């Protein structure tokens, strides 16, 4: 390729010399002054310098044109003898002027070329930085860097990240025999390989990159065909600095995320322990006190008192059982072990089961089930569906006044069955509606005091179960000054695994 370019320059030189000489003969036939011929040669030499971008071609062409001018256009013609001293002075000045002018032109060309190259480099580095800004992993960062480096250098490239030799790029570059050189380059943070101070026998150049965040590796550039030019080397080093910045940013982001996760784990652990101790202590205290009192005073209290105590024990036992069920469900959800076993079940039977489950907890709440058709059925994991409805009803009982009304209904469409649980117990503060389905958001987050404090898992478990069925759950405040929870179960079922 380089020989072809050089030969093209010599051909261009010869063509310009021939054409300029022919034009000079034409000027002579028109009896124009010989100074005009010199101007033709000046323009020709300038064209040669501009096209070849080398002063040496300008000097060669100057000597050749001066010789041609002397041979064809000065007396005596067709000899190299000059009998007029003025011509000698003119030709010397002409040659000096051309050399100076050519040098300045070449220098200016180099500056223009360098400016264009720098502008292109800056634009390319800007594009790399912009793309790296949105990269979220080591693989993405390296792939972006590879793409732009290959586009600019047009060489075989291979990234080798860390001393584990994780590679990206042209696998034609074999690194098995270069582990010593790669490790040396990383450890000493110096460029090695062809035309460098170390390991010059390699047909590659090894560029190390080492960050303060334990991110290290090398970029291997194939120089078998051509050595790296200075501007290529500078561009590679600048691009690697951009990549290092992105890698360090990603490492810092990862560390911050790990810290956040650890802090969240500690927060959840603290809330979990506090809430579990509270939610376990309350029913256990009732069970212990009630059963102890019943045992010690069995002969002294009437039958109605016994029934009330047994009812309280039963309610607290049910509450404890559902609490344990919610905790187990949360554990399965976090371990991604929630497996659905969907079956068809009449909605009427589901409502009857619900009524039996929650009837003893209502106190003075009024619970109303609104059915549309006794033969309507739903395809779902029925125990989990009942758990969702139970949690929503319990949520309404705990967060509303004793005289509130709770209505459970459903609506059937071609695509899904929508279940609705609404109350008139005051609603949810607007600032908390978007957070009610998050883990550990308990009633105590919305109201002062500890009376209704709970673990805050019921609604988040509801959301997870509905999502597993392929449905959606949402909440809004209604016109009856209460809250309405709505969720849908697709007719064809969600995840049937």
Automatic annotation (TrEMBL):
Classification from the root reads: Bacteria, Bacillati, Mycoplasmatota, Mollicutes, Acholeplasmatales
The cellular location(s) given in this protein's UniProt record come to:
Membrane
Annotated InterPro entries: GAF-like_dom_sf, HATPase_C_sf, HATPase_dom, His_kinase_dom, HisK_dim/P_dom, HisK_dim/P_sf, Histidine_kinase_KdpD, KdpD_sf
Tell me how this protein sits in the membrane. Answer: Multi-pass membrane protein
**UniProt name for this protein:** histidine kinase
Keywords, alphabetical: ATP-binding, Kinase, Membrane, Nucleotide-binding, Phosphoprotein, Transferase, Transmembrane, Transmembrane helix, Two-component regulatory system
Q: What class of enzyme is it?
A: transferase
- Asked whether the keyword Glycoprotein is assigned, the reply is no
